[in-house]
Amino acid sequence: MRRRWLTILLLFLLLGACDEPPTPLAPQPREMFTEWRSILPLRANQRTLLAIASGRVYFHQPDVDPFAPLHALTPAGETIETSLTPKRVADLIGITDAVPSLRAFDTLADGKLLAYFSGTSRRASMASLVLFDPSTNALTLIASPQQLADASGMGLLLDLADAQLVRAGSTIWLRLANVDQTAFLQLDARAVASGQARLIRPFRSLRLDEVTLDVSPSDRFSGQPDGMLSMLRPLTGQRWRISLEGRAFVAEPPTTLAHPSVAPLFDAAV
To answer: How many CB atoms are closer than 10 A to CB 20?
Structure first.
């Protein structure tokens, strides 16, 4: 009888233990990996031109190898060489004894690129604006050396000028600057995309409260959706907004800027 009660008590304890919720398993730690790899063969502390279109990052360092073709970083992380080469541009403008160098470029809304080349051949200018379509490798001349010289008013000094191309809304700005003068040229982005565009120079100098605002070759520009430019003076951190008519307005520096003298990391046309 005593053994029977012990058996019943043991069964009762076992059945009670089965009603308890199972003990949760301890979470297993997840393994995390970080991989560092070089994807852009860029030199440090060099002016770098960047533009993004159709998932590709186009880049060029004009002061490292000015006669190199334009390169691009693909979404897969591969660096490729595009067919936008100085030799093709020289052939396009009919010069065979020299090649120009790529000095500036920016992308259009449809993924095409507008590029500015400059150089000399037997004292003749090779400055040119060309439209490059990466999907077909087609190259179209937008502005010839003579058209650029006439529009800028720089003549033979055109090829000594620093250049920057900026797309701002439906307007494309080409800023040319040498030690003596600065010229701001404009093109209609929709006309450029179709392979036809007319260079205009809507003003001779920037005006800030009826006073001429001097422009330095080191000043950097970026585009705004309304067609206006933003101008940054890297050495001082000063900023201005530039209207289509050449009027300058003082702009407040962004609150996220660490220090007003910090220059942008890249001189890019994004």
So the answer is: 7
